[in-house]
Specification:
The protein is an alpha+beta fold. Helices cover 24% and strands 21% of the residues. It has helices at 4-18, 41-45, 140-147, 154-159, 169-179, 192-211; strands at 23-28, 50-56, 59-64, 68-72, 78-82, 92-98, 103-107, 114-118, 252-256, 259-263. The chain starts with a helix and ends in a 6-residue tail after the last strand. The chain binds a DNA duplex (16 and 16 nucleotides) through α5.
Length: 269
Amino acid sequence: MPELPEVETTRRGIEPHLVGKRVADVLVRQPALRWSVPGELKPLLCGSRIVSVSRRAKYLFLETDTGKVMIHLGMSGSLGVLKGYVAPGKHDHLDIVFADGSLLRFRDPRRFGSVLWLEGDDHALLRNLGPEPLSNEFSGRHLHVLSRRRKAAVKPFIMNSRIVVGVGNIYASEALYFAGIRPGRAAGRISRPRYDHLADTIKGVLSRAIEAGGTTLRDYVREDGSPGYFSQELMVYGRAKQPCRFCQKMLKEIRQAGRSTVFCPTCQR
DNA sequence: ATGCTAACCTGCGCGC
DNA sequence: TGCGCGCAGGTTAGCA
């Protein structure tokens, strides 16, 4: 999926096209996503006006005067803004059509994404979320405090959304590389100074990825169909058995919690 | 409480 | 050309 930089890039891309628009129609072609698209979405949304587009963790919110559409892109989701109606593709599951004829289209081949309706601010999926990684709330102190006595490896630890949100498999791998920390090291056995460094590298790699428009590997594209360029800057993700860009030693690949992890055995300790 | 695994689903690349 | 396998940006529920 889209990790946080891809979701934030999407938010920035769609917001100017949506704010102020009035919803004229909602077309649900495939309601069977990670959670079923609520049948009342159309009657609830029609006639309302988009006030803003916001983000929390990897969730996007189309905020209207009557409630919020809560969208998750899952592993393969993307959103597109179209000037007018174009015949949908196989995986174009949902359109929100505006009064001026333009539309927001949700595409998701693997259907791990979701489109839900939120009245107010509360939803079970939003409880227990950790801080935003780019906020001041997220720091080395935060990681250090929460990791004490934890035996889990540091990589799954920083990918745990209760600890910090928005850090997925790509950026967890990249941040650990820049921090010089082995992904398999127990989270509870990492010092405060090293967590200070790691919090910095997480913020840094996410910020740079947002500037580059995210990382395009397969499915992810921006709202106008263009790719993100951060893949060119990846140091370890997807580079198993290739030389480390710093020390030239072969990068190693392991599996952690069912996800592949690539790291440099020399630069990361 | 913590941590691991399977599950959800489709598509693609690879070896045979 | 086709088949089966393993893998892919996420996250939750369920069980040890």
